[in-house]
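Posting here for the record, re: adenosine-5'-triphosphate.
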Amino acid sequence: LAQLFRPLDMLGMVYRTIRQGLIDMAEMFRLLDEPQEVADVPGAPALVIKRPSVVFDNVLFGYEKDRTILKGLSFEVPAGQNIAIVGPSGAGKSTIARLLFRFYDPWSGRILIDGQDIAQVTQTSLRAALGIVPQDSVLFNETIGYNIAYGRGDATQADVEAAAKGAALMPLIERLPQGFQTEVGERGLKLSGGEKQRVAIARTLVKNPPILLLDEATSALDTRTEQDILATLHRVSEDRTSLSIAHRLSTIADSDKILVLQDGQLAESGSHLELLRRDGLYAEMWARQAAEQEEFEEAAE
Ligand code: ATP
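Prediction output follows.
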């Protein structure tokens, strides 16, 4: 009897796999649809950036009419500074990133880059100014070189090499018999999560955007690779304006300023030391993560 059922089990698995595939596709279409919610105003000029500052000025926003997510949020990232956004899950951290890319417009309030309202400039020029290093990067079934150059249409081999160096990818590329010409992705060389992220960092370096958005890994536990990647990210963002969405506080302690978001509002802001001294939400989150880290280390011994 068991033998009779085994093929049915298999069928069930195939069904689940297909269904998951359809869900993923639906998700993708939903994401692709989002940018169409906003349109360029007629005759919109391009964003011109001399000093890449970012300002959220009393931003009110929600995805649905009756549920406000950002409740009159105001903050400033001065040009060249590295700012981290932390806060409990669902506080609205990723929403800030989506609004900065203008996937949605605020209900009221304004978002300014170098003094220009991002709703009044072309979306092409806005997105050219922003670089994002996501947690999960997608690679094309192409060569590593192509995947890096994709950041900018007219990138030269010298640009690609400089970016690979900046993203600490050279040790990997030098090990490969075909170097930059090595095929990666489904049919080619399979890269690890960390290596893929380095390719994404190199892609961003080729693009060379004045403003960087970093979406740091959610995993609560430190690993050597993650530490290395973070060190690379921090080096890359040093002389740029950057916003890091951080889940682990240990990685952002040296930011110029930390914004603590709670329930769509700024609960606190300041440097790591200022916030610890304040003994509020940040200090509490810091103590909790330190305790978790200790537990993890004890368990690992
Ligand atoms: P996390 O740390 O868990 O990633 P977050 O602070 O980044 O959380 P957001 O992703 O900004 O939180 O979400 C804020 C709120 O908005 C959440 O309550 C979430 O359920 C809601 N939300 C996010 N995206 C959508 C969407 N597309 N439609 C409706 N609600 C959404």
